């Protein structure tokens, strides 16, 4: 079952169960996916859907930081809850050990030796960890390896 199909099925289940908040979030996600499908005039693959989900999570995390700075706990709580709902559709996150192993392997593959090779390493790693870890965490892990 594709990720889009899973979202559709879950939306139907949420309608039946009466979980209005989760239903609203799933509808927002499906709307974002549908907009990209209409613009690109093709059905999206699971990887492309993961990109959209990652973007939606990032937007909410950015908003969450702003809400916390402004002291808007009500909106911060809502953003956290939306992130939790979207996370259900993301792949299992990588542990620090798994991430470090991937970084170490990629640094060897690329032949990186200094921080000037950071771009090469990042561009090689990101497809491997797509949707499983935040780019900031990958960046920090790569920097630890490239001294």
Would you give an account of this structure?
The chain is an all-alpha fold and 147 residues long. It has 2 domains: 3-87, Uncharacterised protein YqeY/AIM41, N-terminal domain (Hypothetical Protein Yqey, Chain: A, domain1), CATH 1.10.1510; 96-145, Arc Repressor Mutant, subunit A. It contains 7 helices and no strands. The chain has helices at 3-17, 20-40, 46-70, 73-87, 96-110, 118-125, 135-145.
Task: Summarize this entry quickly.
This protein is mainly α and 147 residues long.
**Helix/sheet category:** mainly alpha
Helix content: over 70%
Order of helices and strands: HHHHHHH
Continuous helix count? 7
Which runs of at least 5 residues are low in confidence (pLDDT < 50)?
none
CATH-level-2 architecture of the largest domain: Orthogonal Bundle
Number of strands: 0
Report the end-to-end length measured between terminal Cα atoms: 43 Å
What is the domain tally? 2
- Which class of the largest domain in CATH terms? Mainly Alpha
Strand proportion: under 5%
Sheet of most strands: none
Average pLDDT, rounded to a whole number, is: 91
Identify the overall geometry.
globular
CATH fold label of the largest domain: Hypothetical Protein Yqey, Chain: A, domain1
Radius of gyration: 18 Å
CATH superfamily of the largest domain: Uncharacterised protein YqeY/AIM41, N-terminal domain
């Amino acid at each position: 079952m594709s990720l889009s199909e899973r979202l559709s099925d879950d939306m139907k289940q949420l309608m039946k169960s009466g979980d209005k908040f989760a239903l609203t979030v799933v509808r927002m996600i499906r709307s974002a996916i549908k907009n990209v499908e209409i613009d690109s005039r093709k059905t999206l693959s699971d990887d492309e859907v993961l990109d959209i989900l990652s973007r939606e999570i990032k937007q909410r995390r950015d908003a969450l930081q702003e809400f916390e700075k402004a002291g808007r706990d009500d909106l911060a709580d809502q953003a956290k809850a939306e992130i939790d709902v979207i996370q259900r559709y993301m792949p299992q996150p990588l542990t620090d050990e798994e991430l470090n192993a991937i970084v170490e392997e990629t640094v060897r593959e690329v032949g990186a030796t200094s921080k000037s090779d950071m771009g090469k390493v990042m561009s090689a790693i990101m497809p491997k960890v797509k949707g499983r870890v935040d780019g900031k965490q990958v960046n920090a892990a790569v920097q630890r390896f490239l001294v």
